[in-house]
Write a structure and sequence with these properties.
The protein is built from 15 helices and 10 strands. It is α/β, with parallel strands linked by helices. Strands 1-2-10-7-8-9 form a 6-stranded mixed sheet, sandwiched between helices. A 4-stranded parallel sheet has the order 5-4-3-6.
């Protein structure tokens, strides 16, 4: 099957904008790579879309291909979105614990079928592979993050950033910030930087962020070997991989990245302050990237940054967020605003309630 017979890429080039508010908050120049504008609502449109394209190009009969994915989150939405663009069906299998909002979003996005079965992801994935995939000769399994074609798709983000910075007469980024779940995005960022073959990409720092309760990469780097977490305990459920991909671990060690862990309260704070400052809703798995811009966190983690340093924040997006969710986060974690820096030039410092919501 030739590439000419495929529709256009199931992902788009997203804007790279410099944020005045976040730059003032962070004390350096903050550029936002708005992956929340992808067709599926997250960066996963790139990696999952690339995998689906590759599968069709290499299948002996692409007209019978039916994609199957066991992610009820952003990977599942990306699978459905990309499959529709490529004119193929996608079935999503999710555990019974999946929130009705996400099931509704999967169906609304155009899933061929959404099957709810099992008490957890493993049970749902086993059902998919043993009961559905084996009985469909055109069935193609779609993993959420651990696949070379997914990493290749995510690497397109870096080539876009390089070109967009050049278009803005900027030489390159001094640092890039992304969150880590299974590590697919981190793999893409690091592989993309490797392929730029220029001075700025070789010197570019990478800050990888996780929340407490989902810090599989951080613990692996600390111990010098892959660590499997006993479970996931965080509101940033999209970061909920108990074991990071081997490739992500290897690349992180090779490049000497900075790995950091923030609390759920900080991730939630990043969500509501970003909404106040840029009028954009994101889920905590993305909010953690934005949280580092506030109250001196970024310079604590990357002390070499100066006011002229250019930092690209991957606004990875995510669909598991509503206004009600954001309000609940602020009510539960508002106490963190007691330590908010009082800066009249950053809008979200003025919208923060004095002394936070709660006293603990």
């Amino acid at each position: 099957m030739g590439s000419a017979s495929l529709p256009s890429n199931p992902w788009i080039e997203t804007p790279l904008i410099e944020s005045s508010a976040l730059s003032k908050a962070a004390g350096c120049r903050i550029f936002l790579k708005l992956e929340n504008l992808q067709p599926s609502g997250s960066f996963k449109s790139r990696g999952i879309g690339a995998l689906l394209q590759h599968s069709l190009l290499n299948h002996h009969n692409p007209n019978v291909v039916h994609f199957y994915c066991s992610s009820g989150g952003n990977a599942g939405l990306a699978c459905v979105s990309a499959a529709r663009t490529l004119n193929r069906p996608a079935t999503i299998v999710v555990p019974l614990t999946t929130k009705p909002l996400m099931v509704a979003k999967l169906r609304s996005a155009g899933a061929y079928e959404v099957v709810q079965v099992g008490e957890n992801w493993k049970a749902a994935d086993t059902y998919l592979q043993e009961r559905l995939l084996q009985n469909d000769e055109g069935g193609v399994y779609v993993p959420p993050f651990d696949h070379p074609e997914i990493w290749e798709g995510h690497s397109t983000l870096v080539s876009e950033v390089a070109r967009q910075l050049q278009d803005q007469n900027e030489e390159g980024a001094d640092a890039m910030v992304c969150s880590v779940g299974g590590g697919g995005l981190l793999c893409g960022v690091l592989l993309g930087l490797e392929r730029q073959h220029c001075d700025w990409s070789k010197a570019c720092k990478v800050l990888a962020l996780e929340t407490e309760g989902a810090e599989s990469l951080h613990k692996s780097l600390q111990q010098g070997q892959l660590v499997t977490l006993p479970g996931i305990n965080t509101i940033a459920t999209s970061l909920g991989a108990t074991r990071v991909a081997q490739k992500a671990f290897d690349l992180a060690r090779k490049h000497g990245i900075t790995s950091a862990v923030l609390s759920d309260a900080e991730a939630a704070m990043g969500c509501w302050r970003f909404a106040d400052d840029e009028r954009i809703l994101v889920e905590p798995a993305c909010g953690i990237n934005l949280a580092v811009c506030y109250d001196g966190r970024l310079k604590q983690l990357l002390p070499e940054l100066t006011p002229k340093s250019k930092v690209v924040i991957v606004v990875c997006g995510g669909s598991n967020v509503t206004l009600q969710t954001l309000m609940a986060y602020r009510n539960d974690y508002g106490w963190i605003e007691r330590s908010t820096t009082n800066d009249a030039e950053v809008p979200s410092t003025l919208s923060a309630p004095p002394n936070g919501r709660h006293v603990r």
